[in-house]
Design brief:
The structure is a single chain. This protein has 11 helices and 13 strands. The protein has 350 residues and is α/β, with parallel strands linked by helices. The protein has a 7-stranded mixed beta sheet with strand order 1-6-5-4-7-8-9, sandwiched between helices. A 4-stranded antiparallel beta sheet has the order 10-13-11-12, covered by helices on one side. The radius of gyration is 32 Å and the shape is elongated. The chain crosses the membrane at residues 39-56, 98-123. It is a multi-pass membrane protein. Its main location: membrane. Pfam families: Ion_trans_2, TrkA_N.
């Protein structure tokens, strides 16, 4: 019986084979600008070669025996630089032949490089992308993997960028190429593939990530992605958005640290807005870090240890102790302990 070779996963492929799957963003110029520059440079080479030939026209002879005009010189430069070489015009003097050796021949090589510049550019770009992928895969650490670049995923990334997270520290995983193109244009690292596959998540560096945001369109997909992510990384903080509250326990059992029910949250805000719209406005302000107020977390200072969080100058909402959030007012946090973190409201300058 003949055995089939084992399929090589994404992480087992060489870096050059990942070009198009893993994309490292960069600032790119318009291809039309590059093409225009190449065309103008090629025309300049033709005119320069024609001018050199025309200056030494006495050293050339054509089949008619007439003196070369500038049009003849341009014709000779064209067929010479393009390596066509009909032979109807040829250098006959030693000076003309020397000019062909030291001027026309290098121009011919340069002209051919310009003609195949697009192909060379593509090959060079692929090699450069492969090198960038190799370097990125060795260096990426403590980043955030965002699964899904829909409305929820984009909003989550906007919030992270508003909290001064660098775009290069965010990796987007999605199957939608158009969405990934938008993410890449925003300076984000992108991976094309299904996040339910462990190989795709490994390619996104999830095993070295500090946090994971799962913003899938379906709750069952979110459960599977969370299970796979937790299997690859036991320590990363996994935050999941789902549609139905009945699936919260499934996400908790799958390893999610935080679960956000998007439909219920939106519904509550809509209901509150009918009676107290100012409350909704304040909530939006707290969730928008660019201006106004924002909810933040900070370490406890030594001078604050032993005191009550209600007596601080900051408006403290809760205390994070041992990874658990305890709301202000509970007896456990009447006295701040060393190692606690404070969840408070800070003012953000407009």
């Amino acid at each position: 019986m003949r055995l089939r070779p084992r399929a090589v996963g994404l992480t087992g492929r060489p870096d050059f084979a990942l070009v198009g799957v893993l994309r490292i963003p960069e600032i790119q110029s318009s291809p039309w600008i590059s093409l225009t520059r190449r065309v103008l440079f090629a025309i300049f080479l033709l005119f320069f070669a024609a001018f050199v030939v025309w200056l030494g026209r006495d050293g050339y002879r054509d089949n008619s025996g007439d003196e070369l005009s500038f049009l003849d010189a341009f014709y000779y430069a064209t067929v010479s630089l393009s390596t066509t070489g009909y032979g109807d015009i040829a250098p006959i003097s030693a000076d003309a032949r020397l000019v062909n050796i030291i001027v026309i021949t290098p121009l011919r090589v340069l002209f051919l490089i310009v003609l195949v510049g697009t192909t060379l550019g593509v090959l060079t770009e692929r090699s450069r992308q492969a090198f960038k992928i190799q370097r990125w895969r060795h260096r990426v650490r403590n980043h955030t993997v965002v699964v899904g670049y829909g409305t929820k995923g984009r909003t989550a990334i906007d919030a992270m960028l508003g909290d001064n997270v660098q775009p290069g520290d965010i990796v987007v995983v999605d199957t939608d190429l158009a969405a990934l193109e938008t993410a890449a244009n925003a300076g984000l690292v992108t991976v094309h593939g299904s996040a339910t596959q462990s190989d795709v998540l490994r390619l996104a560096g999830l095993q070295n990530a500090s946090s994971v945001v799962v913003a899938a369109n379906r709750d069952d997909t979110a459960v599977l992605v969370t299970l796979t992510a937790r299997e690859l990384n036991k320590k990363a903080k996994i935050v999941v958005a789902i549609r139905e509250a009945e699936n919260i326990h499934l996400l908790r059992q799958s390893g999610a640290d935080s679960v956000v029910v998007s439909s219920e949250t939106a519904g509550r805000l809509l209901g509150i807005a009918t009676t107290t719209p100012s409350v909704v406005e304040m909530m939006e302000d707290l969730l928008t870090p660019e201006h106004g107020f924002a909810v933040a977390e900070r370490e406890v200072e030594l001078s604050e240890v032993g005191g009550s969080p209600r007596h601080l100058s900051d408006i403290v909402l809760g205390v994070v102790r041992g990874g658990d959030l305890i709301r202000v007012g509970e007896p456990e946090v009447d006295a701040i302990e060393a190692g606690d973190k404070l969840l408070y409201i800070k003012r953000v300058a407009k």
